[in-house]
């Protein structure tokens, strides 16, 4: 799964809300409160839109589907892999038109409340889709709620870390990962000087800017106070830090397009020593020639800025389309895929972090060193705003990041522009 976000303007969102197939609050479809006498007799055909990387993560989920169909022989699952940077708009278009939407979608945590506000998602309270809700971690669970109702089930959770090549850092004189942004810059420069390899590969993606913003005490919004805070002295300092990493040579000037793939390739091929990335990237990284020996991969918290070390909370949910013609089959599919046992299998095979507390007690999860490293990092991750407009926050920030990297703007002017675009979204905020 690559981390990517698409733009959705507030004008389009309002227009879609008017014509949403499920009603303004997520639909009025009655949810059954009791289990069928024999759930394995449920029949139907459902389509699931998955957004994971098809080569490194897809096989695990396709294997789970085979297990599901063996248990529920009367339910056929059509598996469709949709690139994560296309799924949000593609689902909205299909749901708004009432044609072509999947029964179940893998929804990014920032999309869930937006889809629910437009009436596209089936309410799940009291259904078999939500089994033992108290077992879910509070953070991921909070992303499934909108206006007091549940519209999704947490699938996986994630955050960002500093991922690095131990051998390259050791050759540069670093026996452990840099703990501050100042150390990050120095370590990257040392790697470049002593090994000839780039020290740090940056990914020009708004999500990957957040550790620098949080590290200086900044944020995008103050939701409680209904304030737009993206244009702050703290965030200006964060953008200056990113610009300095590039101008100093600690990080080469990144490509504006395909920078995620470029950074990943550089790390895997030993052409960069460090990147920021999350647990979803590990299965792909281990396919690289530098990490055939998994012990060469280092994972550490993102380096701290002047205020703290802070990485964003991310993740994905299972959500059911309100217009599905096979609601009962969709409930069973979501319930099956989110059991502690299946979450543990996903964690064991591809190191994605479970959203259930009990899954972390599973020996398969406890035996995964990558999950063990990411779990404490996840415990200190910074929550993002779970609001309908949450999915619209990244495109203005991405465009600003691209302009900054391209030398078309300054940190201060970049944030002024982002602030102006946010004010077009949050018209009544200060």
UniProtKB/TrEMBL annotation:
Keywords: Signal, Transport. GO terms for molecular function: maltose binding. InterPro entries: SBP. One of its GO terms (cellular component) is ATP-binding cassette (ABC) transporter complex, substrate-binding subunit-containing. Pfam families: SBP_bac_1. The keyword Hydrolase does not apply. Residues 1-20 form the signal peptide. One of its GO terms (biological process) is maltose transport. PANTHER family: MALTOSE-BINDING PERIPLASMIC PROTEIN, MALTOSE_MALTODEXTRIN-BINDING PERIPLASMIC PROTEIN. Belongs to the bacterial solute-binding protein 1 family. This is Sugar ABC transporter substrate-binding protein. The lineage of its organism: Bacteria, Bacillati, Actinomycetota, Actinomycetes, Streptosporangiales.
């Amino acid at each position: 799964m690559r981390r990517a976000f698409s733009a959705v303007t507030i004008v389009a969102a309002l227009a879609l809300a008017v014509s949403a197939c499920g009603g303004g609050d997520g639909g009025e479809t009655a949810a059954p409160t009791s289990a069928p006498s024999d759930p394995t007799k449920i029949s139907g055909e459902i389509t699931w839109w998955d957004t994971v990387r098809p080569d490194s993560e897809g096989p695990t989920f396709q294997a789970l589907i085979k297990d599901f169909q063996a248990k529920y022989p009367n339910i056929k699952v059509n598996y469709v892999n949709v690139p994560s940077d296309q799924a949000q708009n593609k689902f909205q278009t299909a749901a708004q038109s009432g044609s072509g939407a999947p029964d179940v979608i893998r929804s990014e945590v920032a999309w869930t409340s937006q889809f629910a506000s437009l009436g596209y998602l089936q309410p799940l309270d009291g259904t078999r889709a939500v089994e033992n809700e108290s077992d879910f971690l509070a953070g991921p669970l909070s992303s499934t709620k909108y206006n007091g109702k549940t519209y999704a089930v947490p699938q996986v959770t994630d955050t960002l870390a500093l991922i690095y090549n131990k051998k390259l850092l050791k050759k540069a004189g670093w026996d452990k990962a840099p703990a501050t942004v100042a150390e990050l810059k120095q370590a990257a420069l040392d790697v470049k000087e002593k090994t000839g390899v780039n020290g740090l590969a940056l990914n020009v993606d708004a999500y990957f800017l957040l550790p620098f913003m949080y590290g200086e005490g900044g944020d995008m919004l103050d939701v409680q106070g209904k304030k737009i805070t993206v244009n702050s002295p703290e965030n200006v300092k964060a953008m200056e830090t990113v610009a300095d990493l590039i101008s100093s040579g600690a990080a080469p000037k990144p490509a504006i397009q395909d920078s995620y793939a470029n950074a990943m390739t550089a790390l895997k091929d030993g052409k960069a020593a460090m990147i920021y990335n999350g647990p979803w990237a590990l299965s792909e990284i281990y396919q690289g020639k530098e990490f055939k020996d998994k012990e060469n991969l280092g994972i550490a918290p993102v380096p701290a800025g002047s205020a703290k070390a802070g990485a964003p909370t991310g993740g994905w949910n299972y959500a059911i389309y309100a217009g599905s013609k096979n609601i009962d089959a969709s409930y069973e599919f979501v319930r099956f895929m989110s059991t502690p046992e299946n979450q543990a299998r996903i964690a064991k095979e591809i190191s994605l972090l479970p959203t259930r507390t009990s899954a972390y007690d599973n020996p398969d999860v406890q035996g995964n060193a990558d999950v063990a490293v990411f779990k404490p990092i996840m415990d200190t991750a910074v929550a993002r705003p779970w609001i309908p407009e949450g999915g619209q926050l990244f495109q203005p920030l991405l465009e600003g990041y691209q302009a900054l990297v391209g030398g078309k703007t300054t940190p201060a002017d970049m944030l002024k522009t982002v602030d102006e675009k946010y004010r077009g979204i949050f018209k009544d905020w200060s």
